[in-house]
TrEMBL record:
Subcellular location: Secreted
A Pfam family assignment: ILEI
Coiled-coil portions: none
UniProt protein name: ILEI/PANDER domain-containing protein
CDD domains: ILEI_FAM3C (cd13940)
Any single Gene Ontology cellular-component annotation: extracellular region
Record keywords: Disulfide bond, Lectin, Membrane, Secreted, Signal, Transmembrane, Transmembrane helix
Organism (species): Bos indicus x Bos taurus (Hybrid cattle)
Regions crossing the membrane: 6-23
GO MF entries: carbohydrate binding
Annotated ranges, domain ILEI/PANDER: 99-185
Protein family: Belongs to the FAM3 family.
Length: 223
């Protein structure tokens, strides 16, 4: 009995020691397995140091330039968004956008937002937009984004007024086209800040509407 008891005791010690060694090796293995690589660790440390550019632009704007981003509406479901100097002026979240043309006026010297309005170009009164455009002064920047239908009520007078702001594509703007634009009065040349996409059943991304457009950049401050 004494010999068998001793053997059982030794077997117990061996089992405990073997189990302890296994657990130690397993823990060390897992710690090594889940340790982050150096580059990931440094990236995590530097993530808090990243600088967010105004309006989410991919690059920051130089001095004496304003940052802006204009996103047109998507079909008749999601309204447009307009950001200027990191301030979201019009968006579906703000619930201040409308069908047709959405327009923001900004002081070209200070960057202060002067007003924002939407004009129903499907069943609204086009003369309201005509009057609005005629009253824009030369030191004002004009941001425009389409939503749903910007062209049904478009007429020659409105096209000419937008052309005077530097638009190239307003001449062909029609039913359910997508359009984003930034301009100002009496530009010496056409505005470089404009995108246009024609409503075409063969190329439309949505059922009855072209894809939304996104325009971003840096516009010089008026001195």
């Amino acid at each position: 009995m004494r010999l068998s008891g001793l053997l059982r005791y030794l077997a117990l010690i061996f089992a405990v020691a073997t189990t302890w060694l296994f657990i130690r090796e397993y823990i060390n293995f897992n710690m090594k397995t889940f340790r982050l690589p150096r580059w990931m660790g440094s990236a995590h440390k530097n993530s808090s140091q990243l600088v967010k550019n105004k309006c989410g632009l991919s690059k920051s704007c130089p001095d004496n330039f304003f940052a802006f981003k204009i996103v047109s509406g998507a079909a008749n479901v999601v309204g447009p968004t307009m950001c200027f100097e990191d301030q979201t002026i019009m968006s579906p979240v703000k619930n201040n956008v409308g069908r047709g043309l959405n327009v923001v006026l900004v002081d070209g010297t200070t960057g202060a937002v002067l007003t924002q309005k939407s004009f129903d170009m499907y069943s609204g009164d086009a003369s309201l937009l005509t009057k609005f455009l005629k009253e824009i002064s030369e030191d004002v920047l004009v941001l425009v984004a389409s939503y749903d239908d910007p062209g049904t009520k478009m007429n020659d007078e409105i096209r000419k007024l937008f052309s005077n702001l530097g638009s190239t594509h307003v001449k062909q703007l029609g039913f359910r086209d997508s359009w984003v634009f930034l301009g100002a009065q009496n530009l010496k040349s056409k505005s470089p800040f404009e995108q246009f996409l024609k409503n075409n059943p063969e190329t439309n991304k949505y059922d009855g509407w072209p894809e939304l457009l996104e325009l971003e950049g840096c516009v010089p401050r008026k001195v």
